[in-house]
Amino acid sequence: MATSNPLRKFLFPALTRNYLKRLIFLGLGTYIFFSHVLIPLRIQGHSMDPTYRDGSFAFCSRQQYLFSEIERFDVVTIRFSGHNVMLLKRVIALAGDTLEFREGTLYINGEQVEEPYVQHHSSWNLPVRKIKPGFVYVVGDNRGTSMARHKFGQVRIDRIIGGVIF
Amino acid sequence: MKLLRIFLLLSVAALAFYLLLPNDEKKIRKNLDSLAEYCSSPSEETAIPALKKVMLAGKLCSDPCHVQIESFDINHNFSKKEFTDHILMLKKMTLDTRFSFHDTSIEFPMDGKADIVSTVRLDGETKGSRFTDAYELNIQAIKTDGNWLFSSFIVVEFMEK
């Protein structure tokens, strides 16, 4: 049948040299794109609730900080020993800033900061500290857990893999 | 087309050769996977299999074995007995928890010694809700009588509150 030929060709293509070349380029391109440009993330855990919920998906853009600096309130991914398991946190203070939590309220450089992304307010108390050069201060949006159980703090900028989009 | 077929065939043969050839790196990776399995605690695990697993975990480590976790003020050489006791305690504390190693890189600075950097991930359930946690580890392994034994575990604490 004339109509089934294109479909048949599409579904069962002949293994020609050009077809194999295209297949290899497509495979390599996809691999490079999703491992070095836009890394797919599956969120596991509640540290960034409600902005990124447990079980949801997002992408890490590795190019985000190639030509721009990290800004306060950016959501970033932080690596452990590689790119398969990463932490998702929000940057709340930059190098040279002073930071403090008083009864759960954030103070940057002595001024109170509103955090509209925080839904579970805490009673965290953290004395004033200054962020070291080459570091940023990160914390999760979910402050409903105790300070001891929540992973946050100063982290070297070179640990940051990229920004989070979507 | 014939050349392409030969190239593909050679690539598959080289890949198969690499995957099947045993080497030190693969042995260490296998030991890490075994250690993760022995430390994991499935919900249905009873006391005897748990003890057996702890003994097997102990066999993967040297005597003594150094453990350093700065945030818990632990920096100590543990004897095999102490080490297995702590694993048993850890298993009791983390019921229904699965350990797994990811992003593992291995270097051999000298013959019979390996430096490993890896991320251990914990997936479990506590009080009815799921939890996930991860830690970066610097691990050292030494080759003793042909077997790779883990001799040091240091938790890399890269976040400072």
Q: Please, could you describe this protein's structure?
A:
The complex is a heterodimer of chains A (166) and B (161). Chain A is of the alpha+beta class and 166 residues long. Chain A is elongated. In chain A, a hairpin with a 2-residue loop joins strand 6 (105-108) and strand 7 (111-113). Chain A is built from 2 helices and 11 strands, in the order ααβββββββββββ. Chain B has a 6-stranded mixed sheet with strand order 2-1-6-5-4-3, covered by helices on one side. By secondary structure, chain B is α+β, with helices and mostly antiparallel strands. Chain B starts with a helix and ends in a 5-residue tail after the last strand. In chain B, 20% of the residues are buried. Chain B has 4 helices and 6 strands, in the order H-H-H-E-E-H-E-E-E-E. Chain B has one domain (23-160): Roll (Nuclear Transport Factor 2, Chain: A), CATH 3.10.450.50. Chain B has helices spanning 2-20, 24-39, 47-59, 80-93; strands at 61-69, 74-78, 97-110, 113-126, 129-144, 147-156.
Short description:
The complex is a heterodimer of chains A (166) and B (161). Helix content of chain A is 17%, strand content 33%.
List keywords for this structure.
heterodimer; A: 166 residues; alpha+beta; Umud Fragment, subunit A; 2 domains; seven-stranded antiparallel β-sheet; four-stranded antiparallel β-sheet; B: 161 residues; 4 helices
- Relative helix content of chain A: 10-25%
Unreliable residue runs of chain A = none
| Strand order in the sheet with the most strands of chain A | 1-2-11-3-4-9-10
The largest sheet of chain B, given as strand count, sense and whether it forms a barrel, is: 6 strands, mixed
What is the succession of H and E elements of chain A?
HHEEEEEEEEEEE
Query: What is the tally of helical segments of chain A?
Result: 2
Classify the oligomer: heterodimer
Topology order of chain B in helix (H) and strand (E) letters: HHHEEHEEEE
CATH class of chain B: Alpha Beta
Radius of gyration of chain B: 19 Å
Number of domains of chain A: 2
**Could you tell me the number of beta strands of chain A?**
11
Q: Quote the beta fraction of chain A.
A: 25-35%
* Contiguous uncertain segments of 5+ residues of chain B: none
CATH hierarchy: architecture of the largest domain in chain A: Ribbon
